[in-house]
Amino acid sequence: MADYFIDISLVSAAVSRTASPVPKGKKGATTITKSAVKSGISTPAKGIAVDQRMLDLSALNLTEERSVINEEIPKASFAREKLLEEAKKVIEAEGKERKKEVSLVVIGHVDAGKSTLMGRMLYELGRLDEKTRLANERGSNKAGKSSFSWAWSLDGTVEERERGITMDIALQSMSTPHRQITILDAPGHKDFIPNMISGASQADCALLVVDAATGEFEAGFDRGGQTREHVLLVRSLGVSQVVVAVNKLDQVQWSKSRYDEICDFLRPFLVQSGFHPSKTKFVPVAAMQGVNLVTLNGEAAQELRQWYDGPTLADYLDQLEPPARDIYAPVRIPISNVFKGSSSGVAVSGRLCGGVVQVGERLRILPGDETAAVKMIEVKDESVPWAAAGMNVTLYLTSIDPVHLNIGNVLCPPTNLVPLATTFTARIIVFDIQIPITSGASIELFHHSRDVPATVSNLIATLDRASGNITKKKPRVLTKGTSAEIQITLRTQSLSGPSVARPIPLESFSVNKDMGRILLRRGGETIGAGIVLEIFG
Amino acid sequence: MKLVGKYVDKHGAGHVTLRPEDDEDMWHLYNLIQKGDSVRAPAIRRVQKTSTTGSIDSQRIRLNLTLAVTSVEFSSYSAAAEQSSSADPSGSNNSAALQIAGRVIVENPHVKLGAFHTLDIEANRDVRIEKSDGWDSIALSRVEEAIVPGRGAEVGAIVCGEGTAAFCLLSEHMTLVTHRISVPIPRKAASAGSSQHDKALTKFYSTLYDAFIRHIPFGNVGLKAIVFASPGWVRDSVYEYVMQEAGKRNDKVLQRALREKGMKIHISSPHVHSLVEVLKSPEISSQLKETKFAREGLALDKFHKMLATDELRAWYGPKHVALAADRGAIGTLLISDELFRASDPDTRKKYVALVEGVQQKGGDAVIFSSMHESGQQLNQLSGIAAILTFPLDIEVVEAEEKEEEQRKKREMEVDEKEEG
User: Which residue range or ranges hold the Tr-type G domain (chain A) (predicted)?
Assistant: First the structure.
C-alpha cells in the first residue's frame, strides 16, 4: 500500500504526499475515492483530471471549438441625434477645455526649406525624439546630404531621401499651447502638384515658406515658380489664413531690408489672391538653426533680436482659427490614402468634409457598389469613438475587399449618396495662362486626391469678376484673368472602343463647399480654379 | 495595304481594289468607304434552301457580295491585342474590326437582289470600292497614303505615373492603348511607415515589366523608339528596373532594344493625353519628323501658340474657317478625318472643296487622324481649325458678311420691284 501512494504522488503533482489518493483509473482506487468524495477532499483533484483530458484532446485538434475568424463589427454606440449633440458639445468646448484643432498645409517653392522647417519645428516642440534625430543626422551625413537631416523626419521614402526632395504629402501632428495642429507637408516640385493639391484640400490654413536668399525668392515667385501657383491653389481650395515664414535669413546676414523687401513684395500679391490682410502674417526665421521657430532666445538668434521682437512662428500658429465645421451635413470623406492597417483590415485616411462619423457605421464607397463598416477611428494616433467634420481621420474598415478602396474614392452614408458626375457646369477663374482656353480644350480635372482627364466642352459665358453678371455669352476663348461659366465633360480613358467616361463623385458648391471645389490644369500648369454649379450626370 | 487594281477616270468615276493587311488598313478603309458606295468583298453567308418536299437545307457559302453601303462601323479592342502581339513578331495585331452593312446590289445564284448583309472585312482579302459620286482628291490621296509599304507600329510608349501605366503603340494613323495597369500604392504615412509604399512600388515595377514584355514589340525592326514618359522620376526608375530585369533574365534582345531605342521623356501628367507632349518633345520630334503623327502634333501646337500670341490669326469652327477660306487667309488648315466621314455627301464635298481650295492657294492642309491624341483634341475643337497668314478680326468679318447679305437682299428686292 505504501508503494501505491508514492506512485500516485509522482503521477499527479497537484496532490501532496500526505493527501488522500486520487482517482487515476487504477483498479482498487475507486473504493478509496468514494470515501474521499464523502470526506470532500478530492474535489480539486477531480478538476485536474478533467483538464488533463481536454489538454490531451486539444493536442489532437479534435475539439470542435475552432475559432472562426469572423470580424465583429462594433455596434454604434450613439443614436444619430445624440451623437450630433455630443459632437456639438465637444466642438463648443474647443478652446475652453480642449485645444482647438486646425490643419495646416506647408507650401512654397521647391527647396524653400518646407520639410526642414517642419522637421525642426517638430523637434523643438518635442514631437521628434532625440534618437530619431540622431539617426537622421547620421543617415543624411552618410548619404553626403547633411543639410537634409531635418527634412528626413518628414521625407520617409528611399527615393525622397536619395533625391533630397519631397515627393508626397507627409502627415504629422504637433501641439502648441492652444492648438492641436495637423501638418501636411507638401512637395514643392512642380511635378508633384497633384500631391500638393491632395494635401491642400485637407487643410484649413497654410504656412507659406519662402527662401530669402538672393535670387532664390525671385526664382520661386517668377513665372514657373511654385510660390505663386501654390498660393493661388490653396486660396482656391478654401484656405483663408496664411502665415508666411521668410526662411534662410541667415544666408543674407539677417538683413532687415531683405526681409522687408520680401514682405512688401508678397503683401499686395496675397491681397490680390484673396487673402485678407488681417489673416496674413509674416515671420522671419532660419529653419536650419531653429531661429524664431519656437523661441527667439539662443545665440544663433542674436542678430535677429536686434531688429525683431515680434511673435515667433509657433506663436502665430497658436493663433490660427479653425473654420466653422458643418457637422449636420451628411458624411463625406474623400480618401487620400489607403494602406494596410497595423492589425487587420484596411485603413483609409482623409478629411471629413462634413458630418459626423462613428465606429460601427456603414459607409458606401463611391464610385462603386460596395459598402464597408467602420471598425475603428483614429484621430492623431488616438482611437476615438467618433469624428466630426474638419478632422483628419484614419478609418479602419472591415467587411470590405481592399481592392474596392482607391485613393480618390469618397465615403458617404448609404442613405445619402454623393452624386456621380461626368458632365457638369462650373464657374471658374482663369489663372495667368499663356494659351487661352478654347472650347474643347483638354484639361486635367482635380478634385481632392483625384485627377481625371476632362474637356472643356462648352464656354457658356464670361462673367464680371466683381458682380458675377454675364458680360458675354458664348465667348470664343477665355484669356487670363477672366471669370467664366463653363461646362466640363470627363474624357473617356481610351482613344477607341466604347466611349464611356467613368464618373466621379462630385457635389455642387451650394450643397457642400469642400466637395464642390475643382481645379483645372493643363500641361503641368494650373489654368483655373472654380466651383461646381450644376451636375448633369 | 496593297493596291490590287485601280481604275479611275478623269472625272473621278471608277473603282479601286485594295487588300488590307493590318489594323491600320482597316482604319484606312473605314475612312474611305462611305454611305452610298458600292463595296465588293468576300463574305460568308448562310443560305437556306427549301426543297420541293418542304425540308429546309441550310448551308454556309463563301461568296463575293457587292453591297450598296448603308453603314460602316469600326472598332478596335485593345484587350484583344494581348495574345497576338507576343505571337506575331511584326507587331501588327489584328484587334481592329471593320463591318460594312448594306443591301446586295449584284445578284448571284445564292443571294437575292436587295437582301441585307453585313460584311466583316478580313485581312488579306480583296475589297473593291466604287464611289457613287466619284473619287475626290481626299479619297485618292488616302489610297496613296494607305499603300505606302513598310509601316507598322513605329513608337511604343509607356505613359506612367506612380502606380499607373498605359502602354501605347503609335503608328502612322493610329494610337492604340494596348494595356493599362494600375497598382494601388499607399502614401507614405507616419503611422504605417514607408515600407508599405516601397513594397507596393516594387510590385508595380514587376507588374509593369511583365506587361512591357507582352505589349511592346521591342524586337520589331520597324519600331523606331520606345518611350518611357512620366512626370517626376518614375520613368527613370521604371527604365532602370526594366533594364535590370532584362539583365537578370539575360534578355539580350530587350537590352539592345532599350539601349538603342529607349528614351525617357518628361510629361506633366500620367494620363494618355500627355502623349501630345511626348510628340512635341525635341527628342522625339527630331527623330520622327517625317511621320504623320509628329506633324499633326506640331501643327496643333503651332495653332495653340498662335492662339496665345495672335488670337486674330488662329480661327476654329467650321463657319469661321470657311469665312477665312473665302478671304484666302488660310496658311495652315487643320482638319480632322472625322469630317470627311460625314454621312451627308454634301458636307463631305464642302470640306473636300475647302481643302482643295487651300492647297491651290499654296496653303498647307494637315488632315488629322482621329485615332491619335492630337486628332482627338482637334475633334474637341470642332474638328477644324486654321492658322491664318494675316490677322483677321472675326467680328469685323462677321459684320462684313452681314452687310453683304443685306446688300444682296436689297438687290433682290430691287430686282423684284423692277420685275413687278
Answer: 99-325
